[in-house]
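Justification of resources, computational component.

The compute hours requested in this renewal are based largely on the per-chain cost of generating structure records like the one below. Each record pairs the submitted sequence with a full structure-token output. That output is archived, and it is also reused by downstream analysis tasks.
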Amino acid sequence: MFKLNEIQELIKLVDQSSLQELEIQNEGFKLFLRKPGRTESVIVSSAPPQAAYGAAAIAPAGLPAEAQPERGQAAGTAEPASAALHTIVSPMVGTFYGTPSPEAPAFVGPGSKVSEKTVVCIIEAMKLMNEIEAEVKGEIVEVLVDNGQLVEYGQPLFLLKK
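The structure output for this chain reads:
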């Protein structure tokens, strides 16, 4: 089984390398990482899903269950109401800023219409300010993090209705 600190270290190493994807299998568990630019995902699976942990188990790499890839669609299982929403996730570890400067208004908020190129926030990583774009057209439903909050790779930042 993979430990959370091992997964976080692997995410950092992949993020800093030229690798686009990494897949590791170990003792019946599988870890798959894919860099942004494609569909972002962090998936950890085992042969008996959550058998040893019960229904309250933490999702892979500390992600909430709704941030996991949409497996229910392929399996034909019932989906929660939030499955119709698109999740904009952090492509890196850093500090979330919802405004371009402390005195400026927020890039977006609930009800804001966005296009694929709309900047929704800035993630500061290693003193570099990285503008994060929506990458899909729709309407912001919810901002999931606070200004100045540290965020992890793959952490949900916004819920968007397409």
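Residues 4-62 form one domain. Helices lie at 4-16, 71-75.
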